[in-house]
Amino acid sequence: MAKQNKQNTGTFxxxxxxxxxIISFLLFLFGVALIARLAFLQIVQHDTxxxxxxxxxxxxxxxxxxxxxxYDRNLNELARNVEVESVYVNPAEIMDRKSAxxxxxxxxxxxxxxxxxxxxxxxxxxxxxxxxPLNEIARLKQAGLSGVGYVSEQKRFYPxxxxxxxxxxxxxxxxxxxxxxxxxxxxxxxxxxxxxVTERDARGRNIQSLEGLHNSRPRSYDLVLTLxxxxxxxxxxxxxxxxxxxxxxxxxxxxxxxxTGEIYAMAxxxxxxxxxxxxFPSQVWKNNIIASSYEPGSIFKPIVAAAALDxxxxxxxxxxxxxxxxxxxGKVQIGEASDHKFGWLTMxxxxxxxxxxxAIKIAQQVGKKPFYDYIRKFGFGEKSGLSxxxxxxxxxxxxxxxxxxxxxxxxxxxxxxxxxxxxxxxxSAIANGGNLMAPHITRALIKNGEVMEQxxxxxxxxxxxxxxxxxxxxxxxxxxKTGTGKKAAIEGFDVAGKTGTAQKYNxxxxxxxxxxxxxxxxxxxPADSPRLVILVMIDNPKGLHWGSVVxxxxxxxxxxxxxxxxxxxxxxERVFILDRA
Length: 581
Known about the structure:
The chain has three domains: about 1-45; about 60-160 and about 190-225, Penicillin-binding protein 2a (Domain 2) (Alpha-Beta Complex), CATH 3.90.1310; about 230-580, 3-Layer(aba) Sandwich (Beta-lactamase), CATH 3.40.710.10. It is α+β, with helices and mostly antiparallel strands and about 575 residues long. The strands form six sheets. Strands 2, 3, 4, 5, 8, 16 and 17 form a seven-stranded mixed β-sheet that branches. Strands 10-9-21-20-19 form a five-stranded antiparallel β-sheet, sandwiched between helices. The protein is built from 20 helices and 21 strands. A hairpin with a 5-residue loop joins strand 6 (about 190-200) and strand 7. Helix 3 runs antiparallel to helix 5 (about 135-145), helix 11 (about 300-310) packs across helix 14 (about 370-375) and helix 12 (about 345-355) packs across helix 17.
């Protein structure tokens, strides 16, 4: 028995020793693993963990400052920046979320449920509202809510509200240009991004605010436009008045210097306020002067006359038989727009009385290819190159695709679509002696008061001879003196121009509407030494629709007031000056 007990004791001790060895070995492995893990964290992943740690306690907020100012040609501000504050919260610091959501939503005019969702976030920084009005900030600060913070920012501000809005465009919340000049010159106007760093404790509470680049902001470029705020206001005022009077769908007007291509005014109606662009339907933001194309109607007739005169195929006094108001081409019968029954008319009278059949006869004299070539030389069928986004090239079929009706239709402004900027550029070439000038709306880039880049007038090509230009000016003067453009006449000034009344094409019915029209007038003054070319187009006026009645009076008002503003002397004033000399 004693021997057996001794054997059991030995076996027990051997088991204990084995277990101790196993435990010791496991502890050794655990120690090795722990040391390896510590070495991995301290040496291999040191930089990564430090970055993560800093990320947990440092929050970076990006804001944008110093966007360039936009001026008119006389350095009147059209777009600038104002200092504002944005509101954020640290949800970890908010004690009563329901009460905070109610106060924030009421003060900042926000949806309470959405605000509550934001302040219930697990993040340590949540925007509530960016770039708030001053009165909202003042009321919110009085409430003294915990967990609410404020960040200084700059907001784009358009002091003239709707003035030139479609040309200027607007910017988004982070000061990125979204339309118009603001978008086209984003790289020059953008300003800088400022990173504001907020330090937090272990519970996510803000303990320090640091401003990284606030005191070292380089100035951005400022942009000077060719627009003149006085001419722009005059143009918008009279255009809007006429659109409202005739309950039209929309209206457009452009004022350009024919010798330089500088645009003094670019107006679209309906208007919008770029300070609150989101409150307006997106289609109102569109700059139809460059982005939309229209069948021009009779304002296109000077182009066919220019081709005939420049090729030496006709003279202003040459006569054409206008078929007593009815002409058949193939199976299609063409009539005059106003049911006139013209017989023999000179080229001058064809343009002055706006005879469709007379225009066809002139086009037939010119021929398809030469007419097409002149249309292209005048800049139709291609973009003008104006430094604004979204420009259309219009619609011009290649001459090989013209059918039997094309020559006739295009001669009086159908079967071709042009943009208003193309049309005003083309008439400028007639007015200035025959040169097609590139239209431009930007005058200079400046920085710290110094001109860094100047945008000079650019001649694209000669389109017609000076002789042709002088002949056509006389023809267009007769439109205002004795023809359809009498309501465009300005006392003391010779005016040259052309009326237009184009039927709108209905894509659904594949036919021209008998009730919807685009009424237009394009002209320049003073006729023999032009300072202004002005195009007025009014889309779908109700009641009367003739360009001579709807658009010509708007031209007259704009031209009359602008000539006076520019101190252009009338014929009587010129005589007085010469007599005194």
